[in-house]
Amino acid sequence: MTEHLIVEFFAWTPLTAFVIILAVVYFATRREGSAAAVHGKTYACAQCGRRGKHEHMVPVTHEGAVVWYCGRCSNR
Ligand SMILES: [Zn+2]
Q1: For labelling alongside 67, which of 9, 36, 55, 73 has CA 20 to 30 A away?
Q2: Which sequence spans correspond to the domains of the chain?
Q3: What's the CA gap between 19 and 21, in Å, rounded?
Q4: Which DSSP symbol is given to 45?
Q5: Ligand 1 mean position to 42 CA, how many Å?
């Protein structure tokens, strides 16, 4: 009975470890991808250089090019 359980445990361990490694790799890749997506959506303030998300930044046309100001600098 106990021996059977031990044999079954060792038969399943490599498969379980493989699944866990796959899950870890999957979540690590996913987190990296979402972090890159968030990074791509941030803008540096043209005035103070502070980085902010798209919805917190104000576009200002400056010499024909659009620059982004943060909430504090756009109110000045
Ligand atoms: Zn600013």
Answers
A1: 36
A2: 1-40, 43-76
A3: 5
A4: -
A5: 13
